[in-house]
Specification:
This protein has eleven helices and 14 strands. The chain is α/β, with parallel strands linked by helices.
Length: about 300
């Protein structure tokens, strides 16, 4: 068996005004992986490719060890729960309970007790028509629906969109419990920093259709730092060669703020160079993303 729940090998999707890839991405089993990037980066298209809802021009996609393009891929998809960012309006006239009756026939592991438990937990009435539900209520219902067949893999596209703070906290708790057995996997796309910090084990940065890197979360936050050094002690030109340098700016009071993506190496280098770090600050996820976006824009302009 593969150690990867999802793998994309040199996958390309070309559209008139957008190209996704080539993407090389491996999502490890038993962990939560979060895709982070600005709107239009290709996150939702990546989910559709993984589920074979759209076809790539190039590359191979494997889902739970199986080639997703194979004729019997429905058996593999039955082991997956997918929560899209936007829901189709075609079933707005249906009662939620009617949709549930249809959907559950496709899943041999459907658990009505789990379904009812989640409805109670999220305070959802499935006798209401889907089109009459608020955005948050609809998301809670769909969330209960995808979890009720005990999927091995969850694909979550902006899972907390429309949720109030209490429902958001409940969702986080449910997902933590979902992962407790140790053999389940979540691949999610999210722009909520706190959500990524609470859930993710690995973070994927996707910008302009390209995967810029896959990082273990704790390692990522331990590597990206801002170092403050005295400009009187060291010139801007001198710190340009600091390991992992991603930017230098004036910080006031004669200080230079140097951003590095290799904090341990940069700290060692400063010690060797006799440069005193007066203050250091770990960067937040949105800070790191902003730097990567700007670097990618610079690359595209060059």
């Amino acid at each position: 068996m593969t150690d990867h729940a999802v793998s994309l090998t040199e996958v390309e999707l070309r559209r008139t005004h957008f190209q996704l890839g080539p993407i090389q991405l491996e999502v490890p089993k038993g962990y939560v992986t979060a895709i982070v990037g600005p709107n239009g980066s290709g996150k939702s298209s990546t989910f559709k490719l993984i589920l074979d809802l759209i076809k790539p021009q190039k590359g191979e996609i494997k889902l739970l060890g199986k080639n997703i393009a194979e004729a019997d891929d429905w058996q593999t998809k039955a082991r997956v729960g997918f929560l899209p960012e936007l829901f189709s309006p075609h079933d707005d006239r249906l009662k939620a309970s009617s949709k549930t009756e249809f959907v559950k026939k496709w899943y041999p592991e459907w658990d009505v007790n789990r379904y009812q438990e989640l409805l109670r937990l999220f305070e959802v009435d499935d006798s209401i028509k889907l089109g009459k539900m608020s955005k948050g209520m609809r998301r809670k219902y769909e969330f209960a629906l995808i979890l009720s067949h005990h999927p091995e893999l969850l694909l979550l596209d902006e899972p907390s969109s429309g949720l109030d703070p209490l429902a958001w906290r409940t969702m986080i708790e449910v997902l933590h419990r979902y992962m407790e057995p140790g053999d389940r996997t979540i691949l999610m796309a999210s722009h909520i920093v706190e959500e990524v910090k609470r859930l993710a084990d690995y973070i994927v940065f996707m910008i302009h259709g390209r995967v810029l890197g896959v990082y273990e979360k704790d390692e990522l936050f331990g590597s990206w730092h801002a170092f403050y050094v005295h400009g009187e002690q060291v010139s801007r030109k001198r710190v340009q060669v600091m390991p992992g340098n991603c930017g230098i700016e004036e910080a006031g009071g004669g200080m230079l703020r140097v951003i590095t993506r290799m904090a341990p190496d940069a700290e060692e280098w400063c010690g060797q160079e006799g440069i005193t770090i007066t203050h250091r600050q770990a960067l937040q996820l949105d800070d790191i993303l902003a730097i990567l976006v700007e670097q990618e824009r610079t690359r595209l302009r060059s």
